[in-house]
Amino acid sequence: MEAFLHQVLSGLATGGIYAIVALALVMIYQATHLVNFAQGEMAMFSTYLAWSMIDAGMSYWLAFACTVVLSFLLGIAIERIVIRPVGKAPVLAVVIVFIGLLVILNSVAGWIYTYTIKSFPSPFPSRTILGGYMSAHELGVMAVTLGVLALLFVFFRYTPLGLAMRAAAQNPVSSRLVGIRVGWMLALGWGLAAAIGAIAGMMVAPIVFLDPNMMAGILLYGFAGALLGGIDNPAGAVAGGFAVGVLENISGAYLVGTELKLTVALILIIGVLVIRPSGLFGRVLVNRV
């Protein structure tokens, strides 16, 4: 029973990371109705920026704040320079652009920082808590995830800019009629997604270490969480991320083994798409033909 409880609590901690990645994916999907396959590489590159600042002597939290701001600006720049020119292109063309962006960011990170694995510091104490079931970093990751979700809820629910971004994502035509600059709302959505992804990268780097390929598996788990909770529902995606973390740990410990844990995410993706494409908390849209 103690081992099972440890797997559940540890799964909640890793699920917090998947939840942040799922949240970033949802931010892009709500604006473009496309999945950003380069989200993991954007987070990885931002984490390298944070590592460079910390390695230069900057304090962790100052580097954290600077990285979030720089990632936000980088996300806006990517939307303006790369995504906006293909905004009206066929879906397949946009997907290829996402994949190209993934390869470019991975290669540039490897070229600048090399593919040598680097350690990344944790801002939380290196001790266990809750009777040894969780580490301070794992509990900190959960707190950061819930904090990001709360801030986004307040932003989109109670601020004029957040309401404008929601309106632009749901009905661009009507939003333009009332004076909302839809193009810039989309750019801000990309900026927020990049900033959220940077937080995910900085939270996962102390666990998996830092290298250009560190987010490959994390992105898959985050995508599974977003689909499970509902890819058009931020809160549902966060819940799905936590659920995927728990399922991954329990399955790896008692069913498939640690070597095949990644198949859990693939099975979830296929199962959700076949049985309930809208996810557990997503909206079901019905069109009259």
Automatic annotation (TrEMBL):
<feature type="transmembrane region" description="Helical">
    <location>
        <begin position="214"/>
        <end position="231"/>
    </location>
</feature>
<keyword id="KW-1003">Cell membrane</keyword>
<comment type="similarity">
    <text>Belongs to the binding-protein-dependent transport system permease family. LivHM subfamily.</text>
</comment>
<keyword id="KW-0029">Amino-acid transport</keyword>
<feature type="transmembrane region" description="Helical">
    <location>
        <begin position="90"/>
        <end position="113"/>
    </location>
</feature>
<feature type="transmembrane region" description="Helical">
    <location>
        <begin position="262"/>
        <end position="286"/>
    </location>
</feature>
<feature type="transmembrane region" description="Helical">
    <location>
        <begin position="12"/>
        <end position="38"/>
    </location>
</feature>
<protein>
    <submittedName>
        <fullName>Amino acid/amide ABC transporter membrane protein 1 (HAAT family)</fullName>
    </submittedName>
</protein>
<dbReference type="Pfam" id="PF02653">
    <property type="entry name" value="BPD_transp_2"/>
</dbReference>
<dbReference type="GO" id="GO:0022857">
    <property type="term" value="F:transmembrane transporter activity"/>
</dbReference>
<dbReference type="InterPro" id="IPR001851">
    <property type="entry name" value="ABC_transp_permease"/>
</dbReference>
<feature type="transmembrane region" description="Helical">
    <location>
        <begin position="58"/>
        <end position="78"/>
    </location>
</feature>
<dbReference type="GO" id="GO:0005886">
    <property type="term" value="C:plasma membrane"/>
</dbReference>
<dbReference type="InterPro" id="IPR052157">
    <property type="entry name" value="BCAA_transport_permease"/>
</dbReference>
<keyword id="KW-1133">Transmembrane helix</keyword>
<keyword id="KW-0472">Membrane</keyword>
<keyword id="KW-0813">Transport</keyword>
<feature type="transmembrane region" description="Helical">
    <location>
        <begin position="238"/>
        <end position="256"/>
    </location>
</feature>
<dbReference type="GO" id="GO:0006865">
    <property type="term" value="P:amino acid transport"/>
</dbReference>
<feature type="transmembrane region" description="Helical">
    <location>
        <begin position="184"/>
        <end position="208"/>
    </location>
</feature>
<feature type="transmembrane region" description="Helical">
    <location>
        <begin position="133"/>
        <end position="156"/>
    </location>
</feature>
<keyword id="KW-0812">Transmembrane</keyword>
